[in-house]
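CHAIN AND CONFORMATION:
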Amino acid sequence: MRLSLVMLAAALTLAGCASGPRPADVRAPQPVRAVDAERFYTGQWLEIARLPMRLTDGCVAGATNYVRVNPTRVDVRDTCQVDTPQGREKAIGARGEILDPGTNAKLRVRYFGGLVTWDYWVLDHAEDYSWFISADPNFDKLWIYTREVPGPTERQALVARAAALGYDVSRLEFPAF
């Protein structure tokens, strides 16, 4: 009960400042290429890097699970473990809407029944769908996801790709797995 009240209070606080982008605010680069929704919005992706956010403080072993419901709707479940990879799980479910059907690289996700809305753009991804780089359209947030935990060389290459997109990668966090 207490956790529910804390989450509701956080949602109401975030609702006042979180919404879809206004065209004048869009600064992030456009997605590099289209996304195959059937391949991309299915299964688990591991969060291997992110820009710091208060919301993810103490979160490690982060993951996003997608279930494609129809051509424009995706159910989303974000999880992480608290403090250690064996720690207590924190999870939140949401409904996603593909904003650019056909290209499928822009997803609007509504948390807490729509009280909090975030837009995620898939800026770049592997041809084999083994990794992707995602950001919000306002250039404030950045994530790097993979299907499996990458080795140091692959991680370094993904960070370099994010830097090439114009992001300050010196601030990236690399949560433990």
About this structure: The longest strand covers residues 59-70.
